[in-house]
Amino acid sequence: MTTNTIEQPRVVSREEWIAARKQHLIREKAFTRQRDQLSAERRALPWVKVDKPYRFDGPDGQQTLAELFDGRSQLVIYHFMFGPGWEEGCPGCSFLADHIDGANLHLAHHDVSLVVVSHAPWREFQSFKKRMGWRFKWVSSYASDFNYDYQVSATPNQIAEGKVIYNYEASKDPGEEMPGLSTFYMTAAGYIFHTYSAYARGLDMLVGAYNYLDLMPKGRDETEIMDWVRHHDRYDEATTGNPSAETPAACCGPEASVSRA
Q1: What would the DSSP string read from start to end of 149-181?
Q2: What average pLDDT score do residues 13-19 get?
Q3: d(Cα 182, Cα 78) in Å, to the nearest integer?
Q4: How confident is the model at residue 175 (pLDDT cuts 50, 70, 90)?
Q5: Could you read off the pLDDT of 134-155 as tens digits, one per residue?
Q6: How confident is the model at residue 238 (pLDDT cuts 50, 70, 90)?
Q7: Which three-class secondary structure state does DSSP give residue 197?
Q8: How many Cα atoms sit within 13 Å of 187 on the Cβ side?
């Protein structure tokens, strides 16, 4: 829950502030170089050839994984938590999804297709997508093993038996649906390779609003993970943007949250 107070640091002269800022800038530049190195190492990871004939249902009917590339060589899939029978999507995934359409305006012109995939049948999330006003392509993997193979869905039996793997380790608190991101590359000959997947706090970089908050005096200002996040049509404007107390917070649990390492 957001707070209205902040522990104020010491107040100094402009000269002292500039000196402190320059010292911090040294660390920020070092972090930027480390991040660039980490990104290079990520791109150098080995690939896995995708041979399974996955099928997806969407606005263009049934499509293969290759068809989701839409003529480009790179594909990024966001695994959105919307399970069979759900009436609306996870608020945490929705928070992230609010950033997708803007990015897509540019990615589509830089050899990247970005597609959202959920486990629920396609027709079950159409009214929610319309309500949210999103334009991105959103397809269903309901008829295939895609969600299970990429470890973002689990069966009740897997959960009961403690056999759910999430973020590359046994999950302590799994749900039937969990968020993630997977990237793929297709060669000129049509071969598809899985190049990367990220889960949990590995999705942080996709949430632009959090990057803004990290620059603010109060930071993310959370008591619990994403406790302030709501669907964007569920905020109480009368309280200057603070969430309504009656509205459930993000459904991403501790194991699935985009804000937990």
Answers
A1: HTTSB--HHHHHTT--EETTEE-SS--SB--EE
A2: 97
A3: 7
A4: very high
A5: 999 999 999 999 999 999 999 9
A6: very low
A7: strand
A8: 9
pTM over 0.85: yes
β-bridge pairing 55-58 and 61-64: antiparallel
- How many CA within 13 A on the CB side of residue 190? 4
Is residue 125 within 8 Å of 118, Cβ to Cβ? yes
Token pair of 135 as six digits: 């334009």
pLDDT one-digit tens code per residue, 74-110: 999 999 999 999 999 999 999 999 999 999 999 999 9
* Percent of the chain that is helix, strand, coil (3-state, to 5): 35, 20, 50
3-state secondary structure of 86: coil
Q: How far apart are CA 167 and CA 181, in angstroms?
A: 11
Domain-wise residue ranges, the chain: 48-205
Assign 261 a pLDDT band (cuts: 50, 70, 90). Answer: very low
Cβ pair 145, 52 in contact under 8 A: yes
Q: What letters, b where the CB count within 10 A reaches 16 and e where it falls short, cover 175-186?
A: bbbbbbbbbbbb
Question: If you ran DSSP here, which 8-state letter would residue 243 be given?
Answer: B
Angle made by CA atoms 231, 234, 237, in degrees to the nearest 5: 130
Q: Name the token pair of 22.
A: 């320059």
Enclosing H/E stretch for 84:
none
Give Cβ neighbours of residue 260 (< 8 Å, ≥ 6 apart): 200, 201, 225, 254
pLDDT at 40 exceeding the cut of 60: yes
CATH number of the 48-205 domain: 3.40.30.10
Residue length of the chain = 261
Q: For residue 82, what are the contacts with CB-CB under 8 A and spacing of at least 6?
A: 88, 89, 90, 93, 118, 119, 120, 124, 125, 128, 177
Q: Are 95 and 103 in contact (CB under 8 A)?
A: no
Residue type at 184 in one-letter notation: F
